[in-house]
Design brief:
heterodimer; A: about 160 residues; alpha+beta; six-stranded mixed beta sheet; 4 helices; about 35% helix; about 35% strand; B: about 350 residues; alpha/beta; four-stranded mixed beta sheet; 7 helices; flat
Amino acid sequence: MDTKAQISHHMVIWILRIIFLIIVIATVSLLIYKYIQTEVNIFDVESNLFVYQFLYSKSGLSYYDSSTGEFNAGVIDCSSDLEDKLKGFVSENVAARMVLRSLEFEDYNTFYFNKRDFDNWFVVSKFQGPGAAKTLNKRLYVLCKNQDLVYPAWLDIVVVMSNS
Amino acid sequence: MQKRGLGRRADVDPTHHLYLFLFELVLLALVTVSLLGYVKSIEKNYIIQKTYLSKDLALLTSVVMASPGNINYVYAHPKVDLSTFRFDFDKAVTVVETGMEYVGKPIYYPFTLDKSVAFQPVSLSNPGSILFSLQGKELRVAKSTIEASMVCQNIVVTDSPGKIVVDPGHGVDLRDGSSTHMLGAGYEVNGLVEQNINKYVAASLKSQLAKYDVVLSRQGDEFVSDDDRKNLASAKDVSLVVSLHSGCDYSEQFDSVRAYVYSYSQNMIRSEYFACLALKEFAKLPDVKKVELVKVTQASESVLDTGNVAVLFEIGNICFDSVLLKKPYPELSQPIAKAVGLYYGH
């Protein structure tokens, strides 16, 4: 019959062995889960694409002179309703806030694409993981056209995309 | 229980160790089976492929819609077989596998729709490749026929057709097995012998081009040297040279047609034009999955470097279980015959 000391010794050894076994199994499982990719992360590409699409496509913010057929990339008609211009796009998973500022960072105009989604997602963009959101901040140098006056400005864009 | 003493081992109960060992084995087996099951389920569900394709195609749709000018873009993937899936394009790209024992959940990803571009929702089942065509303000997404993606630069050929040289590649007398040419009879795979295919296709081509003056570099299986072929093709009264071979590509499990032209030929542009016309006709054949125009920079021993309009065709994939090369020979020569007619405007 085992002595009390021997029983205690065996129990301790058993516990250690089981702990070690659990650690090994957990490590192997973690490695496997880590290296199996089921997600394809395209946030960077998509958000940048969205920015340039909104700014430089014919249906976007850049000024298109219908009388001459001239398209002026990077020139924004600041006298028009810019938020209305963006209604020509439809997207379920992208929202954005755009702020036109002077070179001295004085705000001219703030407008949104998918404002409701932006408000919902921007709040959770501080978190990570499913249910949260990712943001891209971009500052672009543009020209603002107001009637015949053209002056430089900053366009600050915050693009938000939900993780779910 | 053994007493401890000098020189004797402390008590070791083998039964406990055995139980623990068995317990560990069972635990290990359970974990292994569950991990393998997890990996298998990922593989079976095609999750990664569907996720990748839905996002890639959604991005592509957004990019094409935002582009100025007209675009024709054919989307195909070298590693993922698109014909395994069905693609639904609406406000999002939805991908679901078809024809499988187990069909997993459809995966979709939305794209940014530009309302000023007319876009009809479309569903494509088992496409080999997908054609995105933006013409003006209309975007069309359709199964790509490789014919649709080939655009030949139009050239007006005003010369009257001279002699056409048809050069069936290789040639050796198989009866005595002798060959004084390094490549002999060409590829011999699964009962298909390249020199025979070349010979019969050339004969069919000659009969289809009955109204032209067509000369064959070899009629039978006799050996014809490279110099003799080149001399024949270089003659001043020759207006067109067509060399026939079979292709072999172990990395492709399908039939393809390649046309080779010599980059430094005086008639490179016309050669390219003729090759393009022929490839467009080959692309219409249902068994041809790929056509390719190849511009070579070295052709010193070949009929391509003769100063005349010259194209070398590699038809089918003899190293794969070729379906195309088992077709009747007139079907294989018909695209080239049609291209000759188009080239001369007949």
